[in-house]
Amino acid sequence: MSQYILRRLLIAVPSLLGISLVLFVVLALAPGDPFSDMASNPNVPPEVAAALRARFGLDDPIYLRYLHWLGAMLHGDWGFSFTSRMNVDTLILQRLPTTLYVIGSSQLLALLVAIPVGVYAATRPYSLFDQVANTLAFIGFSLPTFFTGILFILVFSVKLDWLPFVYSTSIDATGIHWLAEQLRQAIMPVMVLGLFQAASMTRFVRSAMLDVIRLDYVTTARAKGLGKARVVVRHVMRNAMIPVVTLIALQIPAVFGGAIVTEQIFRIPGIGSLLISSILANDTPVVMAVTFVFACLVVLFNLIADVLYGWLDPRIALR
Q1: Among 67, 163, 194, 202, which one is least packed by beta carbons within 10 Å?
Q2: Would you tell me how many other CB atoms lie within 10 Å of the CB of residue 72?
């Protein structure tokens, strides 16, 4: 297993280098830069603007700028935010826990809903429960997160006044009251992301279970007198979870994309909202760093999925 993990780590390194190169070139060729507004500002002398551009290497060739950026990144220098007037790594570390909290909670909710519902629907195909679950799943992944987010705000915040629709980082409470308020304000964004992911996962879990439950070894296990619950849990679910792990890993980019929209709707101070504000302000160092962090998280979750493959099916780890 250790050699298997090492191989996956070695594969991840060139992937991240390739992703960083593509991101840097695209951002470098995009119109505008952090000092583009200075050209039309009469209060900034031209020589000052030229000195600043030379100081940050904005007039250097793209390959030299990329090598300087990569070297600085490897030494822990992620750049400087011209809008927030602080180091980019400090800015991201302030926002990243909130994003991971929302995304992690939504993924946990999606798994807690999708696996039991999908497994139960697969053991009773075409029953009333199966038909209701399929209908709700179709509705769930047909509605985009921005629509369900606004709908939740209208119902639970405006109409019923049960939940706050703006995420606050400065809660005036301590102890159990602070924890309760944190959970209360996270309910809607977590539900919006989690139920959207759970809808597609439910369909996939059901399909994977139906594929495995018809195999000969399952029929043999039941013919030997094993109980239905034991056959499903010990013999069917483990093999059916391998394609489900694939789906979860491939959905991670979509989850982060949905998190960007959700953070804008609920005003969550995460790195998704930081990315949008930095794009609007032409804050290129922050945009580059945030997109690279997203790429690293996607590669990390795919690595975790590969490790889970080896645990679910030991034959994979030996290849």
Answers
A1: 67
A2: 13
29 three-state secondary structure: helix
d(CA 48, CA 258) in angstroms, rounded, equals 41
Q: Is 281 contained in some domain?
A: yes
Residue pair 289/40 in contact by the 8 Å Cβ criterion: no
Q: What is the pTM of this model?
A: 0.78
The CATH number given to whatever domain includes residue 140 is 1.10.3720.10
3 state DSSP class of 86: strand
Residue 264 and residue 276 in contact, taking contact as beta carbons nearer than 8 Å: yes
Q: Which of 55-59, 143-147, 313-317 has the lowest mean pLDDT?
A: 313-317
Between 34 and 159, residue with greater pLDDT: 159
Number of domains observed in the structure of the chain: 1
Distance CA 61, CA 183 (A): 49
Residue with tokens 């011209």: 82
Residue from 297, 249, 304, 302 nearest 271 by CA? 297
Between 23 and 57, whose confidence is greater? 23
Residue 13 lies in a domain: no
Q: Which amino acid is at 256?
A: F
List, in order, residues 6 or more apart from 167 with CB less than 8 Å away: 98, 185, 186, 189, 266, 267, 268, 269
- The answer to whether 109 and 200 have CB atoms below 8 angstroms apart is no
Residue 156 forms part of a structural domain? yes
Q: Is residue 97 part of a domain?
A: yes
Domain that holds residue 300: 88-317
Torsion angle, alpha carbons of 279, 284, 290, 295, to 10: 110
